Amino acid sequence: MSLHRFLENAVCEWMKVKGPQSDIVFSSRVRIARNLAGMPFPTLSTASRAEEVVRMVHDVWKEKSDLPSLEGATFVRMSELSPFEKRVLVEKHLISPQLAEESPNGAVLLSQDESVSIMINEEDHIRIQCLFPGLQLEKAWKMASQLDDWLETHFTFAFDDQCGYLTSCPTNLGTGIRASVMVHLPALAMTQQLPRLFPVITQVGLAVRGIYGEGSEALGQLYQISNQVTLGQSEEEIIDKLQGVVLQIIEHELNARKRILNQSTLELEDRVHRSYGILAHSRIMDSKEAMQRLSDVRLGVDLNLIKEVSAGVMNELMVLIQPGFLQQYAGQRLDPEERDVRRAKLIRERLLLENNRRPSSDV
């Protein structure tokens, strides 16, 4: 398969669209956890009861879905997917690692543009997730709420008057909502402000995690910031609080970028162009170095120091170089050394494809 054809099928449609504040905020996500009343939670369920939940959700979607957001959606069982395919869905943030690795009776309902995914039999019976580019928490919440309302017309959810919606993990009790943004903070990292900033964020009830959520590593200066508390606050309060904190983080990052650009222009130009050159010519590259080089170049693009490539291509590559995508593109299992070679090759090919597409006056 050619790289061009692979890209057409691999990259989510929503990832190709530029969103508000997208020079710093890559994506906004809202996730809602729900469980069906009278059914054992997935952590305690049997295979037959888990299959019953899958069938119930599938039937409601197939027979009664009239939501525009689910038009052309696809229902996929985890048992139908190869390990590569599951890994790709994780790397695209469409399913959780737990659903991919620990839920043989799980499934996911994916919208056509993949901005909506409804996971079934993960930690909870139903997890609604809505993803949008840039800072669009309110839009993500509105769509997730519509899907929640639609499901609640067909199912009775486990609910307690004092605790709110009941979930497998106590940290999700109450509203069951987790809102998060993926932010790119290279200038704050360069100016060594992150060690002071992150404790302040946690003090106001938010969490800072890596690119795949809890327990994952922050690569390429990408961080996921989300609410920690779901009980005792309304959904709107959770969204507003996260939005306010993210706007402050954006301001700090922009100020740090201006300071670096004004005080260390030559050093910054050398760093971003050196990373671009390494990406364009390397033959072997591990994921950690690749993410850092891509982060450097993305910063250079945002500051108009690099014109050879677009920010969208950098976003694509941050996903495409992950292990699942590399093996899916190769069509075979690759050991770590083979992935490093394949990763470098894919980056070279993608940058060359982009250069060939651009008018000669832009190069």
Q: How would you state the average pLDDT, rounded?
A: 90
Order of helices and strands: HEHEHHEEEHEEEHHEEHHHHHH
Sheet having the most strands: 8 strands, antiparallel
Count of helical stretches: 13
Low-confidence stretches: none
Strand order of the largest sheet: 2-3-4-5-1-8-10-9
- Please indicate the percent range of residues in DSSP E strands (runs of 2 or more): 5-15%
Distance between the termini: 27 Å
* Broad structural category: alpha+beta
| Shape annotation | globular
Task: Characterise this structure.
The protein is an alpha+beta fold and 363 residues long. The protein contains 13 helices and ten strands. It has helices spanning 3-10, 47-64, 83-91, 97-102, 137-152, 186-190, 194-203, 235-263, 265-281, 287-302, 311-320, 323-330, 336-357, and strands at residues 25-34, 74-77, 107-110, 116-120, 126-133, 159-160, 164-165, 177-184, 206-209, 222-227. The chain has an eight-stranded antiparallel sheet, with helices on one face. A two-stranded antiparallel sheet has the order 6-7. The two termini are 27 Å apart. 43% of the residues are buried.
